[in-house]
Design brief:
Layout (H helix, E strand, L loop, with lengths): L6 H9 L3 E7 L6 E6 L8 H19 L11 E4 L3 H13 L3 E4 L4 E2 L2 E2 L2 E2 L7 E9 L3 H14 L2 E10 L4 H7 L3 E7 H10 L5 H19 L1
Parallel strand pairs: 3-4, 3-8, 8-9, 9-10
Antiparallel strand pairs: 1-2, 4-7, 5-6
Helix pairs in contact: 1-6, 2-3, 6-7
Length: 217
């Protein structure tokens, strides 16, 4: 469920030059996409970064307060490197929730140190990332925290869902994905606002639908 009332985010990303069109290879895959969104550029707009943290926190609180809570209580938040770190920091400051993160590679006194921050084994942790494509980074981080730090992960909140099947893949593994904005909604806003031509919209929207169909096949 994405809130179309969060279209301020689409405008902020466009103004930052974070939405780009062309031929892009996504993350660790060889998948080519006609649209790329660089949410790390939010650090160049302190207001938008802070607002993103506030909105994510508000969404989580709303879902926790429902009669049948859609998000479980958590003791800490964890940002997925690297894109999720600045958003997890903003979320932590708004929610007053302690933060941890998985360090990709670090040694201390000859020992590998992976989890930065204080935590207690058995705690529940909310994962935070900037965007999700296939869900691979979420699964990797959640699995590491479970196996190496005895931390429990159920819920994941991202600012942007590229809508390429991550929600279904994560759900199949027992994880609940919450997204603030979907890529198709972002593209629709840009087209309706006259910021992109219909040809760019159609090419990108067709790509999303094709990817979604392949994932569900």
């Amino acid at each position: 469920m994405q809130d179309t009332g969060n279209l301020w985010l689409a405008k902020a990303l466009w103004d930052l030059g974070a939405v780009q069109f062309g031929d892009f290879t996504l993350g660790r895959t060889t998948q080519h996409s006609p649209v790329y969104v660089n949410l790390r550029l939010l650090i160049s707009n302190p207001w938008a970064l802070s607002e993103a943290g506030r909105v994510m926190h508000q969404e989580i609180r709303t879902r926790q307060s429902m009669r049948n809570a859609q998000v479980q209580q958590f003791a800490r938040v964890c940002g997925i490197p690297f894109g999720g770190l600045h958003l997890a920091t903003a979320f932590s400051l708004h929610s007053k929730s302690p933060m941890i993160y998985v360090h990709p590679a670090k040694e201390e006194n000859g020992n590998r140190v992976f989890v930065e921050g204080r935590y207690e084994p058995g705690e529940s942790v909310l994962l935070i990332d900037d965007l999700v494509t296939s869900g691979g980074s979420v699964l990797e981080t959640a699995g590491f925290l479970r196996m190496n730090a005895d931390l429990n992960i159920r819920d994941v909140v991202v600012l942007l869902d590229r809508e390429e099947g991550a929600r279904e893949q994560l759900q199949a593994q027992g994880y609940n994905l919450i997204s603030i904005l979907g890529l198709e909604t972002l593209l629709t806003y840009l087209k309706a606002s006259g910021l992109i031509e219909e040809e760019l919209y159609d090419k990108s929207a067709d790509y999303i639908r094709e990817r979604r169909a392949k994932r569900s096949a």
